[in-house]
Each structure stands twice: as structure tokens, then as C-alpha cells.
Amino acid sequence: MEEFVVTPWEVRGKINYDKLVKNFGTKYIDESLLQKIKKLTGDLHFLLRRKIFYSHRDLDKLLNDYERGIPFYLYTGRGPSGHVHLGHLIPWILTKWLQDRFNVKLLFQITDDEKFLFKKTLSLEDALNYAYDNILDIIALGFDHRKTEIFIDTEYIKSLYKIALKVAKHLTYSTVKAAFGFDSSYNIGAIFFTAIQSAPAFIEYERNKRLINCLIPCAIDQDPHFRLTRDVAKVLKYPKPCLIHSKFFPSLSGLDKMSSSEEVSCIYVTDDEELVRKKIWKAVTGGRGTVKEQREKGGIPKNCSIFMYYYYLFEPDDNKLREIENKCKNGELLCGDCKEDLILRINKFLKEHRKKREKAKDLIDKYLVRD
Ligand code: TYM
After folding, report:
1. What is the pLDDT of residues 158-200, one digit of tens each?
2. What is the pLDDT of residue 1?
3. Treating both helix axes as pointing N-terminal to C-terminal, what angle do 59-67 and 31-41 enclose, rounded to 10 degrees?
4. How far apart are the first and last CA of the chain?
5. Residues whose beta carbon lies within 6 Å of some atom of ligand 1
6. Which pLDDT tens digit goes with each residue over 303-333?
7. pLDDT per position as a tens digit, 173-184
8. Three-class SS of residue 138?
């Protein structure tokens, strides 16, 4: 039996992130690459310091080019099949940081077409409604509107289509089948879709007609698309897009990936305070069966979904994180207190986020581009 599966549409099993690097043929973000980023940006975001972003394709080359005066832009995206959850924010938070530090343009693709094609019960109208809903969350993160273009595939297809066609012509059915595990029951839109997700990786080159690199921050599930994009780039004489991959923000049920298909174990940015409390209290922890045992033996943070929340998002300060970890390990910190503290932090974050989300409603036109 397969140990684990990671594709853009399915993540299951116990993920071995090292094996993904090997199987996908990516590279680790090592110390020297981190130092290089630090040299250019002045510091390192905790998502990099903690190796949550841990793998890449040609990031070293992109940074060398950048030092030689060859510019780059950022490209990332969202498939709008429901509300945004905290896991989705991981790549977007780093994207914002990269935009700020390098002062570069960002293209943000919203793939309503993809979600319509891949989700049996989602209508095209609902996917579009979620697109507009999710865009508020994206704007709320504070991307620079002068340097950010957000587009929804069905409203921007004219700008994408020519490039998508050029890509599609060089992708055979058997290549796509092998990359994504499709069988002949998949609809033909699904088979074509990777060409649409490839297009923004080349669009700036087409517009500028001069060398410009593209850097794609995403979780590693999206890599199979861009492996194909990179193969095709060579044939089309486009620059190969570069990638920086994150691990998955884990679920509250102890699984490796926070996923919309597991509603109770992931926190949506739209969850209210009570729901957050309920979900956190139900979470799988690394705690012991009784308070006495916890005091004596201590908890196991590495097996704890609550600790992972601190690690991935809610305690950016490394010293404070270590303090939480040590207090857990030596039995000083009990799960109940740790959960209560996290609930406060999440609700504070979400309260702020909701305010920014409201403001975003007036800002959409500053970000959205249409044909
Ligand atoms: P989507 O909507 O599934 O996910 C949006 C982004 O979030 C990442 N992601 C996660 N990151 C950390 N922890 C998690 N638990 C988690 N779950 C999802 C995804 O890797 C993605 O980066 N087809 C894409 C949309 C897209 C795109 C792109 C993404 C279009 N162009 C370019 C990245 C880069 C999708 O459905 O993403």
C-alpha cells in the first residue's frame, strides 16, 4: 500500500517531506541559501528560519540573477472551493514578506475554473462567489495594491488563454496522467487545467519581452503543476519559474495537513470565537492522560497539534516558542492552559483579520484585474 499521497488535489497519509524532495526532484533550502536570503533582505522570516518553507527549485539561481540586476516577480494562487483556512495563509504570509522585502510585483491567480472542474458538487457560480469571498482574505493580508494583480480565471481568461494554449500543445495526455495520477474517468477540463495554472508563470515575460524571473511560493502539493510548467518552459524558450515550497500546516485531529475536507479539524478565517474555542478544545494534543502524569512526565510537543499552531503561526518569537516547548516538556504547562492561551491568540488574530476583511470590500477594484 502507498505510504502517503501528495498531489494538488489530494493529500493523505503520513507525509514524508524528505521523500517528497527526492521524489519530486526539488532541493532543500539549506543554510547557505538562508544566509543568501538574509543578506538580501536583512533578516529571515520565521517561516524560513523554522524551515516550514523547506524546499525549492532554482531559488539560488533566481537570487544570483537578482544580484546581477535581473528582476523577478511573485506568483501565487488560490482555488476557491470554500472559505480560506489558516493553512492557506502560510504561503501568502511569506509571499507578502517577499513582496515587501524585494519590492516586487505579485500576480495572484484565483482558479474558480479549477475548483468547478475538480469538485463534483460545486457549481461554477458558487466557485465565483467563493473567489470574491476569498479575495477579501487575500487583500486583508496587506499586499501592496500598486504592485499586486489579483485575477479570477473565468474573468481573465483572454489574457491567459494564448499562453495556456502554447503550454497545452507541449503536454501530452500521458505526461499529465503520470504527473497527477488521472485515469480516463477524469473530465477533459481537468486534464487541460494545468496549462491554465502555468500561464501566469510566463505572463510577465510575454508582456515585457525581456528576461524576468518568476518565483512561486506555495505548499509542496502544487509542485507537480510547476514541474510540468518548467519542462514546457524549456521548449517554449521562456524562463523556467522558480519555486519555494512549504510544508503543510497540520490539522487539529493530528493529521499532517489542515484540509477543508475535514471541517472540524481546521480553522477557517471566518470562524467565530465560540467555534474556535470548540475546535481547539477538541484538538489532539501531545499531553498525557492525567494532570499528575503530565506534571511527572511532561508533554510531547512534537506530537501536539496545539504546539504546531504556535510553531507555524502564533508564536513568531523563537525564544518564546522554545519557552512554551520546554515548559510543556517538563510538565510545567498543562494542555488546558496552553489551549486557552492559543484560543486567545487565534481569536485576536481573527478579530483583526475580520476588520481588515471588511475594509477590503472597498479596495477590491484596486487589486482586481479583468479582461
Ligand atoms: P489551494 O486553494 O488549494 O491552496 C492555496 C495555497 O495554500 C497552500 N495550502 C497550504 N499551505 C500550508 N498548509 C496547508 N494545510 C495548506 N493547504 C493548502 C497551497 O499549496 C496553495 O499554495 N491550484 C491552486 C491555486 C493556484 C496556485 C497557483 C497556488 C493557482 N496558481 C500558484 C500556488 C501557486 C489551489 O487550488 O490552491
Report:
1. 999 999 999 999 999 999 999 999 999 999 999 999 999 999 9
2. 54
3. 30
4. 47
5. 8, 75-79, 87-88, 90-91, 109, 111, 114, 197, 216, 218-219, 221-222, 246, 248-249, 257-258
6. 999 999 999 999 999 999 999 999 999 999 9
7. 999 999 999 999
8. helix
Same domain, 270 and 214: no
How far, in Å, from the CA of 222 to the mean position of ligand 1? 7
Of all residues in the chain, the percent with pLDDT exceeding 70 is 99
Identify the CA nearest to 177 among candidates 113, 130, 141, 224.
224
Angle at 366 between CA 362 and CA 369, to 5 degrees: 120
Whichever domain contains 325, its CATH number is 1.10.240.10
| pLDDT score recorded for residue 96 | 98
Structural domain boundaries enclosing 342: 263-359
226 plus 274 within the same structural domain? no
Q: Where are the alpha helices (DSSP H) in 169-249?
A: 173-180, 188-198, 200-208, 223-236
Residues 241 and 327 both lie in one domain: no
| pLDDT grade for 2, boundaries at 50, 70 and 90 | low
Clarify whether residues 227 and 184 are in a common domain: yes
Residue 26 domain flag: yes
pLDDT in tens, 67-109: 999 999 999 999 999 999 999 999 999 999 999 999 999 999 9
Helices (H), 141-171: 153-168
Of the candidates 218, 247, 276, which is a domain's last residue? 247
Q: What SS3 class is residue 72? A: strand
Domain boundary pick from 222, 247, 272: 247
Tell whether 235 and 291 lie within a shared domain.
no
Residues 333 and 217 in one domain: no
Are 158 and 285 in a shared domain? Answer: no
* Residue whose CA is at the smallest distance from ligand 1 atom 32: 76
Domain count, the chain: 2
- Residue labelled with grid coordinates 458538487: 121
124 occurs within a structural domain: yes
